[in-house]
Structures are given as C-alpha cells and as structure tokens.
Amino acid sequence: MIPALNPVTTGRNVPFLEFLDAASAAGFPALDYYIAPFARMAKEKSVDAAIQLLEERKLTLGSFGLPVEFRKDEGIFQEQLRELPAMADLARRMGVTRCCTWLYPATDEPVAEYTSRFIRRLRECAKILNEYGIRFGIEWVGPKTLRTMKHEFIHTIPGALELIGAIDQPSAM
User: Average pLDDT of 13-40?
Assistant: First the structure.
C-alpha cells in the first residue's frame, strides 16, 4: 500500500495545482484525485503534460474518483458515461489502474428501486473500466450518524460484497 493524499481529507476546496504542491511538499508519494483536471490538461496541451504535472512533483496518481454521477438523474449519468472511456483511457496512459466511488448509507427512495438502479449503473461503469484494465473499488460508508434518511442503505461489508456480486464484473471490488 502506498500512502496517498485525498482531497476529502483536506477540506476539498484546495485548488488543483496547490493540492499537488501540498501533497508533494508533505512527502506523499501518491494522491487519490479526480481525473477531470488531468483530462483538461491533456486536452489543452497533451497527455505528456498531464503526466508531467505529477512527475515534476515526484507523485503518482494512486486512484481516481469515478467521474460519473450515478446517484441522480439518468440524463446526467448517460452523458458522463459516454465520457468515461476517454477518461479511463487517459488514466491507463497515466499508469493508473484503480478507480473508486462510495455509497451513501441511506436514501429517501424505495430501497429496491434505488439498489436496482445502482447495480445497473455501476455495472455499466465497471464494464468500461474493465476494458481499460482499471479495477473499480466501491466503498461503503458505515456511520449511524449518516443514516438519517427514510431508509438505510448499504453500510456494512456484507452489504457491499452483495452489491459487488450483483454488479458481476471482474473489475468491481
């Protein structure tokens, strides 16, 4: 395991290049970050320029957050899903082999419909990531203090493993 800095642990509001500089200055060898800023750099300049952002700071990108909003609107999901192959290809070219997302432990929606939609959407994401050799980690969030909505959702290891089994893709873990 490689120690990695994640923006969630820093308050999330640190600008991209400042975050990279802070991770480097603190001696982190890696970071877990969004792929979108690297995609913008690759589009504006080149993939090599995106890679150099990390190399200059002696960093690697350990994983990237799933750049697809699967929790809400179907239209947004489909639009972002269409962009996922390009993002996964960039990640692969940058040497990144892991993508991850998390599940909120409660919902106001009927659980069966919510679960079914998540399985379908996450399976579609996992298929694409698998095509690019990227493993897909799904994190469950457990604190009771976050289970404040109408229905509890996945908040245990067995629940997460059951969801991953239902997704049924080799990249999902």
Answer: 94
Other CB atoms within 10 Å distance of the CB of residue 116? 12
Q: Is residue 47 located within the same domain as residue 91?
A: no
Tell if the pTM clears 0.70, that is, is over it.
yes
Lookup: tokens for 13: 């509001």
Please answer whether residues 41 and 73 qualify as being in contact, where contact means their C-beta atoms are separated by less than 8 angstroms. Answer: no
| Domain stops at, among 65, 98, 121 | 65
Domain residues for the domain of 8 are 1-65
Half-sphere exposure of 94 (CA within 13 A, CB side): 35
The pairing of beta strand 151-152 with beta strand 106-107: antiparallel
C-beta of residue 4 within 8 angstroms of C-beta of residue 31: yes
Domain count, the chain: 2
Q: Are residues 84 and 166 both part of a single domain? A: yes
